[in-house]
Write a sequence for this structure.
């Protein structure tokens, strides 16, 4: 699965818990406090299955559930969460609308959007809504667990099957603005040559460890570069930075 890691990751064709995101092994969020997860899905059996898998892990804990977007916002107003697993299709308020509302706050939890529909528009809308991840419900349990840990660390996760089409959509469907004319181009212009080099490698699916090896520098140096890239681009996480790299044509999908 491909992933994007804000300060530590990869972007495999822009997605994979190791591609568009992190590149290292999963780590427990904290020796003391488990990652607090909230489940939002209109199917109770689905929530029960997710809860069983998540609660089986010593470093993860489901702290609340909700059956739709409206209930999710109400629950999350009183329950602190680190990561929210958010279904797309739900009554009253769908997951994309709920994600947009939820991520307006500066201290909002990370959101991983879950769906049975592997469609480009869902991926794009999930990212635009502020989600840090996008996964299919039929992903293996270990991928879901890895996604929760990855996103909690500040990385982003995109289902690998959606990655290629997402990038193709970005470079073929969006109009190409004149060089330097868009806010994205202006933000990109603030990067140093080395930071642009690191961003390209991020978008190519390289982990921090791999980038460090490619550039013959320490991994800590790469993490510093990634942090500065996110700050200069105004990106919430790595996936948004990678999407910007493709939108500005700094990076193009490989054949």
């Amino acid at each position: 699965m491909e992933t994007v890691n804000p300060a530590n990751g990869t972007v495999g064709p822009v997605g994979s818990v190791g591609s568009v995101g992190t590149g290292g092994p999963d780590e427990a969020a904290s020796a003391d406090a488990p990652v607090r997860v909230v489940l939002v899905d209109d199917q109770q059996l689905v929530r029960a299955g997710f809860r069983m898998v998540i609660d089986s892990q010593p470093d993860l804990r489901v702290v609340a559930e909700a059956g739709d977007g409206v209930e999710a916002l109400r629950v999350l107003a009183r329950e602190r969460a680190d990561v929210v697993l958010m279904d797309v299709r739900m009554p009253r308020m769908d997951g994309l609308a709920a994600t947009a509302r939820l991520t307006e706050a500066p201290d909002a939890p990370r959101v991983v959007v879950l769906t049975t529909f592997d469609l480009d528009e869902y991926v794009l809308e999930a990212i635009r809504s502020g989600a840090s991840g996008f996964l299919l419900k039929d992903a293996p349990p270990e991928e879901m667990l890895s996604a929760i840990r990855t996103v909690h660390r500040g990385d982003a996760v995109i289902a690998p099957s959606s990655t290629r089409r997402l990038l193709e959509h970005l470079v073929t469907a969006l109009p190409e603005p004149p060089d330097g004319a868009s806010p994205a181009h202006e933000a990109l212009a603030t990067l140093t040559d080395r930071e642009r080099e690191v961003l390209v490698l991020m978008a190519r699916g390289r982990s921090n460890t791999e980038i460090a090896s490619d550039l013959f520098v320490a991994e800590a140096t790469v993490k510093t570069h990634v942090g500065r890239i996110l700050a200069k681009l105004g990106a919430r996480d790595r996936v948004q930075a990678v999407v910007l790299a493709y939108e500005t044509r700094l990076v193009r999908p490989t054949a």
